[in-house]
C-alpha cells in the first residue's frame, strides 16, 4: 500500500522510515506551501482552524500521488482535533480520493483500538510481530535524535556569525539521520550532527534572550505553519525552547516534560474546569518557563482555537504573578509574515529594555 | 546650517516623513498617501522636503519604520530600522512625560502600548480584523458623503448616539445602513459608530491590559475628535493628543536615528537627491529544491542592492 501521514516539523524522517519498514510504500507529504493552504481552504469548513485546513491541503496533495492510506493521530478530550481524522475521511470520500484514514487513538485512552489499527498496518505490510517491535524501537530512536538535534540548533543559532549557517548545517545533519537504519547508525549520525552544529563559528560574547514557545501542538511543531518562528527569532539573536517535541513526554532534555506535573502547575489558575487541547499546558508551561529564568513566552494559537483562547484569557494573570511577559500570536490563513515579524521585533525590543533596566544600565531612549 | 534627523514611516495607507532638530523639535512634517507605491511616495516626499530645507538643514542621521521599513531603509540608506511599535513608544514617551498607555490607530493597524517608568512592558496589535482603523472610517465617510476631516465634528454634535454593532467592519456597516433607513440623524449614527469602534478596540486590542493614565492617543485616526471623546468617556479620563499625532511613528524613527548616530557616528543617508534614482523590485521562483521560494531582488539603477525571500540563504549570500 502507498501510505502517508501528516507533516509536522522534521518528524517525517522517522515516520517515512516507520512506514517503509512496516512493509509499505511511503509518500512524504510536501512541506505546507501556498498551494497546500489554497487546497485546504477550498475544501475545508470555513470555521475549521488552520491545522485542519493545512492537513486537508496536505492530504489532497498526497492524494495526487496515489496514496491509499493516511495514518494520523486521534485524540480524546474537549478539543475537536481528536475528531479531525473522521472529518477528513468524509471530505476525502466526498472528493472520491479513495483514501482510507487510520486515526490512531492515544494508547492510554483506547489501547485496544490503538493495537488493532497498528496490527492491521503490520499485517497488510506482511511483517512479523517481532519485526514490528524492532521497527517501532528504531523509529522512536530516530524521533528522539531528530528532536535532540533540532533543539540544539535553536540553542546555537543565536550565536552564529554567518547568518543561516546553523540552518544549513542542521539540514545536513537531518540527512545523515535520514540515512541511518540501525540504532548504532542513528547514534553515530546523531553524534556527528551534534559535532557539526557545535563546530559552527560562534560569537560567544553575545548574551541571547531566552524565549519559551507554547501553544497548540500543530502550529508549534510545523515551522511552515508558524512562519519559521524559531528560525526567525534565532536569527534575531534569541534562544528559543519550545514546550512540545513529538518525543517530549518521556524525556528529560526539554525543560517542560512531565504531563502529570503540568496539571499540578496549572491548578492555581484553573481550579474550576479543565481546558482541552494544550490549554492547560500553555498555562503550566508559562509558569515553568518563568521559574527557569526565561525572559519571555510566546503563545502560538490557531485562530478560533478554543483551548488557546481560554488560556489566553488566563495568561495575563500568570504573566503578572510570575513577572514574565507573554505575547500571543494568532495564526490564520490571513496572517502575514510581515505582521508576525513586526510583533516579534517589538517583543524582543521589550524584553531587551526590560533586561537593561533590571541590570540598571542607564541609557537614553525609553 | 542647522543639523537634523530624518524619520520615515511607511505604512499601508500613509507615508509620513519628519525632520527633527537637535532639540527634538519637528522642523518639517509630511503626511502623504502611500497609494500602494511606497518607493515613489518616499521619493516624492523626500524631494519636496529637500526643496524646502535641503540647503538649510544637514541630515546627520536617518531612520525608517512601518511595514515597508526594510525596503525603504535600503533605498534611503537609513542608519536604523525599527518596528513601528517601538518607534511609537519612543516618540510618545519623549513628547508626553510619564505616559503609561498609548492608543495608536493607523490605516490598517491598531495597537495598544503599555509603558511603566518609560519602558514598554506590554503591547498588543489587532489580529485578523481591521474594524475601526482608518481605512474603514474613510470608507464610511465616503459612503455618507462627509469629508473625513469633518467626520469627528459630526459625532461631537450628536445628542443621542445610536448603538451600532461594532465587532466587525462588515456588520458595523450594515448596522449603520439599517439605522439610516430607520431615520436616525447622521450625527447620532456617526457618534454611535465612534462608540462602537472604541468598544471594539478596548475588547479586542486592549483586553487584559492595564490601561492607566496619562493616556496618549496618536496615529492618523486621532484626528477624529469623536473617537477621542468616546475613548475619554469609556475610560473615564482625559486623553492626550500630541501635536504631531499623525506622524509619531516617523518622529520615533528620527529619535532612534539620533540615538544610533550618537554611538555609530557617521550617517549612511544617501541624501534628498534619490528622487532621480530608479528603484525596482523584481522576483523569481527558485527551482533549487521543493520549497520553491519566491526570491525578491531589489535594484538601484540596475545595480542589485539585495535579495531576500529564500529560505536556505543561497541567493541572499550571492548578492553580498
From TrEMBL, chain A:
InterPro entries: Dehydratase_Activator_Redct (IPR051805). It comes from the Bacteria. This is Activator of (R)-2-hydroxyglutaryl-CoA dehydratase. It comes from Candidatus Syntrophocurvum alkaliphilum.
From TrEMBL, chain B:
PANTHER family: ACTIVATOR OF 2-HYDROXYACYL-COA-HYDRATASE, BIFUNCTIONAL PROTEIN [INCLUDES 2-HYDROXYACYL-COA DEHYDRATASE (N-TER) AND ITS ACTIVATOR DOMAIN (C_TERM)-RELATED. Keywords: Iron, Iron-sulfur, Metal-binding. GO terms for molecular function: iron-sulfur cluster binding; metal ion binding. It comes from the Bacteria. Coiled coil: none annotated. InterPro entries: ATPase_BadF, ATPase_NBD, CoA_E_activase_dom, Dehydratase_Activator_Redct. The keyword Iron applies. This is Activator of 2-hydroxyglutaryl-CoA dehydratase. Residues 6-257 form the ATPase BadF/BadG/BcrA/BcrD type domain. Its cofactor is [4Fe-4S] cluster.
Amino acid at each position: 500500500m502507498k501510505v502517508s501521514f501528516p507533516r509536522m516539523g522534521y518528524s517525517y524522517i522517522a515516520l517515512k522510515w516507520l512506514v517503509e519498514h512496516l512493509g509499505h510504500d511511503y509518500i512524504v507529504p510536501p512541506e505546507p506551501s501556498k498551494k497546500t493552504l489554497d487546497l485546504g481552504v477550498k475544501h475545508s469548513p470555513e470555521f475549521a482552524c488552520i491545522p485542519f485546513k493545512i492537513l486537508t491541503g496536505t492530504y489532497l496533495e498526497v492524494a495526487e500521488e496515489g496514496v491509499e492510506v493516511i495514518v494520523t493521530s486521534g485524540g480524546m478530550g474537549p478539543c475537536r482535533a481528536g475528531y479531525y481524522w473522521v472529518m477528513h475521511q468524509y471530505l476525502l470520500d466526498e472528493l472520491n480520493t479513495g483514501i482510507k484514514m487510520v486515526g490512531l487513538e492515544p494508547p492510554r485512552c483506547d489501547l485496544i483500538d490503538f493495537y488493532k489499527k497498528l496490527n492491521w498496518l503490520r499485517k497488510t505490510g506482511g511483517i512479523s510481530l517481532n519485526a514490528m517491535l524492532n521497527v517501532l524501537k528504531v523509529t522512536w530512536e530516530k524521533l528522539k535524535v531528530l528532536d535532540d538535534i533540532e533543539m540544539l540548533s535553536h540553542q546555537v543559532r543565536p550565536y552564529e556569525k554567518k547568518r543561516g549557517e546553523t540552518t544549513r548545517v542542521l539540514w545536513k545533519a537531518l540527512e545523515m539521520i535520514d540515512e541511518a537504519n540501525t540504532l548504532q547508525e542513528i547514534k553515530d549520525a546523531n553524534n556527528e550532527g551534534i559535532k557539526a552544529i557545535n563546530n559552527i563559528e560562534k560569537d560567544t560574547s553575545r548574551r541571547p534572550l531566552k524565549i519559551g514557545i507554547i501553544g497548540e501542538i500543530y502550529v508549534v511543531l510545523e515551522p511552515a505553519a508558524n512562519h519559521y518562528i524559531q528560525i526567525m527569532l534565532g536569527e534575531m539573536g534569541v534562544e528559543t525552547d519550545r514546550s512540545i517535541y513529538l518525543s517530549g513526554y518521556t524525556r528529560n532534555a526539554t525543560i517542560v516534560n512531565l504531563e502529570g506535573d503540568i496539571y499540578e502547575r496549572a491548578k492555581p489558575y484553573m481550579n474550576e474546569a479543565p481546558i482541552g487541547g494544550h490549554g492547560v499546558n500553555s498555562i503550566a508551561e508559562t509558569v515553568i518557563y518563568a521559574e527557569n529564568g526565561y525572559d519571555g513566552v510566546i503563545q502560538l494559537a490557531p485562530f478560533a482555537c478554543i483551548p488557546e483562547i481560554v488560556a489566553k484569557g488566563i495568561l495575563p494573570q500568570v504573566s503578572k504573578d510570575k513577572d514574565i511577559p507573554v505575547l500571543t500570536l494568532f495564526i490564520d490563513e490571513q496572517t502575514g509574515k510581515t505582521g508576525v515579524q513586526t510583533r516579534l521585533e517589538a517583543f524582543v525590543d521589550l524584553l531587551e529594555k526590560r533586561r537593561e533596566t533590571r541590570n540598571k544600565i542607564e541609557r537614553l531612549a525609553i | 546650517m542647522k543639523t537634523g534627523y530624518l524619520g520615515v514611516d511607511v505604512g499601508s495607507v500613509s507615508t509620513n516623513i519628519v525632520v527633527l532638530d537637535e532639540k527634538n523639535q519637528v522642523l518639517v512634517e509630511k503626511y502623504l498617501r502611500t497609494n500602494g507605491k511606497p518607493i515613489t511616495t518616499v521619493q516624492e516626499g523626500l524631494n519636496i522636503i529637500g526643496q524646502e530645507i535641503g540647503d538649510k538643514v544637514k541630515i546627520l542621521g536617518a531612520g525608517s519604520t512601518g511595514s515597508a521599513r526594510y525596503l525603504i531603509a535600503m533605498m534611503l540608506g537609513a542608519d536604523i530600522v525599527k518596528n513601528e511599535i517601538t518607534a511609537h513608544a519612543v516618540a510618545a514617551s519623549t513628547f508626553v512625560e510619564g505616559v503609561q498607555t498609548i492608543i495608536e490607530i493607523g490605516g490598517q493597524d491598531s495597537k495598544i502600548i503599555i509603558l511603566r517608568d518609560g519602558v514598554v512592558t506590554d503591547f498588543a496589535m489587532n489580529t485578523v480584523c481591521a474594524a475601526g482603523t482608518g481605512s474603514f472610517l474613510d470608507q464610511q465617510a465616503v459612503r455618507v458623503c462627509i469629508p473625513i476631516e469633518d467626520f469627528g465634528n459630526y459625532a461631537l454634535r450628536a445628542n443621542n448616539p445610536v448603538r451600532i454593532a461594532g465587532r466587525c467592519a462588515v456588520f458595523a456597516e450594515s448596522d449603520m445602513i439599517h439605522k439610516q433607513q430607520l431615520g436616525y440623524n447622521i450625527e447620532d449614527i456617526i457618534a454611535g459608530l465612534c462608540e462602537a469602534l472604541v468598544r471594539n478596540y478596548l475588547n479586542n486590542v486592549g483586553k487584559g491590559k492595564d490601561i492607566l493614565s496619562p493616556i496618549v492617543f496618536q496615529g492618523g485616526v486621532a484626528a477624529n475628535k469623536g473617537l477621542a471623546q468616546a475613548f475619554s468617556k469609556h475610560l473615564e479620563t482625559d486623553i492626550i493628543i500630541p501635536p504631531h499625532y499623525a506622524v509619531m511613528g516617523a518622529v520615533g524613527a528620527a529619535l532612534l536615528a539620533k540615538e544610533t548616530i550618537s554611538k555609530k557616528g557617521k550617517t549612511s543617508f544617501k541624501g534628498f537627491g534619490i528622487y532621480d534614482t530608479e528603484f525596482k523590485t523584481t522576483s523569481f521562483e527558485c527551482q533549487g529544491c521543493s520549497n520553491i521560494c519566491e526570491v525578491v531582488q531589489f535594484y538601484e539603477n540596475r545595480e542589485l542592492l539585495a535579495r531576500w525571500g529564500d529560505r536556505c540563504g543561497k541567493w541572499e549570500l550571492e548578492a553580498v
